[in-house]
Hints:
Layout: H1 3-28, E1 41-42, E2 53-57, E3 62-66, E4 71-75, E5 86-87, E6 91-93, E7 100-102, E8 107-109, E9 118-123, E10 129-137
Antiparallel strand pairs: 1-10, 2-3, 3-4, 4-9, 5-6, 6-7, 7-8, 9-10
The structure holds FE2/S2 (inorganic) cluster.
Amino acid sequence: MIRRQFLHKTALILAASTGVVAALSYFRQFFPRIAGKKRRITLGDSARFPVDTFTYIDEHKLFVYRDHEGIRAVTAICTHLGCTLESTTDGFECPCHGSCYNSQGEVLSGPAPRDLSWFSVNKSSDGKVLIDPGKTVAADEKFTNT
Ligand code: FES
């Protein structure tokens, strides 16, 4: 193999590899990372979550919101490329590329392609808050037995 052929094949392999990585990164944005990983996250007593506040749970990359009516849980993973969101006074903001979501998890400005996923919340028999990241619910659905 002469040098020119070697360089040509190497360039083709690098270009193909780059294309595969780019395609995988693009399609990954359509699947929330937390979904399907672990069923039923136990978070402890509901009193641990301040009222009218989004509490960030770093271990599970989600926010838990508690008000006087109940508890809700939303992913903290941006639907663009998976950065961890930050809670703001009006909702959530992504520090990576600037996507903004309102407090219902709806996209206000991109590049995020879709709204945030909300997860089913229940309580265990011993009163602990349980979150099921494999089961998504509507943004306004909350567990009301707080
Ligand atoms: S990863 Fe959040 S806007 Fe890009």
